Amino acid sequence: MSDHLSEEESKALWQKIMSEVGTLPSLPEIVSKLIKELENKDTNPEALEKIIINDSSLSAKVLRIANSAYYGQSRQIDTISKAIVLMGMNTIRNLALTLASSNALNRSFDGYGLEKGQLFTHSLATAVGAGFIARNIKSDDQEKVFLAGLLHDIGKILLSPYLKKYIEVIKKIVFDEDKPFNKAEKEVFGFNHCDLGAELAIRWELPQLIVDSNKYHHDPSECKNENSKIIEYVHIADHISYLSKFGLGIDGNNYKILFETFEKYKIDDERKAKLIENVTKDTNELFKSMVVV
Ligand SMILES: [Fe+2]
Ligand SMILES: [Fe+2]
Asked: Residue 238 contacts by C-beta under 8 Å, 6 or more apart in sequence?
């Protein structure tokens, strides 16, 4: 077996993987509806409520979590509209997006050494962390960062089954040549989980922000459009998620961070420790409230 795929083999594998997209658990239609609502500047609580109550099982789950200890509401919340009024559109939308994405993310991904729940919590922690960073600097993008964090690693869903065969070669590149895991993937396959995730986002008709968050989360400096700031938050939050031990798997310990991104947002050791503490707490509690539903 050769260490690297030839150009032709790489093209053939890419096509094979893409031909399998339809057979994978995908994001339910409600995710695109929630994203459209998020992108609509004239959105209002009624529009969000309408989307959620259309799906009775999702509504029930949202209500149960809204009433969980995590949100600590003193009054019983029995309708989605009350939940939106008391907890805000952003919180309820993010909750619905997370629950609706769990089918695709809350599985095991053996190629990456991830047990069931680990990619989901890693994604959730990245979303939560990106939210903290955006809030801290009072970013205008606070509503969108959660989504960009939540769906940044969807390419792993596609690459996981093919990693096993080449894992020793990839590890060798990572350790002997001190290269990041995603670069080693690219060297071996000719593409990596970032390329696959970006293509999957296009096929799932997700917005450009999700295409970019997949493509550039390991190297936000490559993103040259209006999404670049959000991708920087995702990059930092991705690292914070690993430091908080969410979804380390095979590649998490070989995460190469862009220090200039941390410096740009003044994330020194003290702020980093605070972020790790907050992300760990929120992600664990949110996840706990979700798995019992
Ligand atoms: Fe990644
Ligand atoms: Fe990640």
From this structure: 126, 129, 149, 152, 153, 217, 218, 255
